[in-house]
Amino acid sequence: xxxxxxxxxxxxxxxxxxxxxxxxxxxxxxxxxxxxxxxxxxxxxxxxxxxxxxxxxxxxxxxxxxxxxxxxxxxxxxxxxxxxxxxxxxxxxxxxxxxxxxxxxxxxxxxxxxxxxxxxxxxxxxxxxxxxxxxxxxxxxxxxxxxxxxxxxxxxxxxxxxxxxxxx
Length: 168
Fold this sequence. Notes:
Blueprint lengths: L25 H12 L6 H10 L3 H8 L3 H4 L2 H12 L5 H10 L8 H18 L3 H22 L3 H13 L1
Protein name: Paraneoplastic antigen Ma-like C-terminal domain-containing protein
InterPro entries: PNMA, PNMA_C
Organism: Stichopus japonicus
């Protein structure tokens, strides 16, 4: 199946700040973009073209200032957009937050699990290149499982989780 483009109305344009209520942040928007295009396995140039077509305002102006070679490179465009409009948390700071996250008082295990998943997703989205994002995705399950076990508040829960983890 060849990649013909994103169906009209499937993805709103990213315009950069200011963000109105209900608008996606750059990282959320990029995640949505990836979700839509990844099943088609487009080339880097096809992804770059579609990305540019779904930009507007300051975001599109920023990309227009790039050289032609960079505008055809998906990773270069994403890096430029992250520099201008992305969260200013680095992968390293998010990595630290993830590994220091423990279950809070009155926080259920399911809420703790969701918090870890959100942090890890932020870390993946903050990665500056597809290669780093891919490496983080490869490590995702093991990292989440390990931090979930280590961060559980109650000792008996940690022991039981370790026992279950070792059995699988």
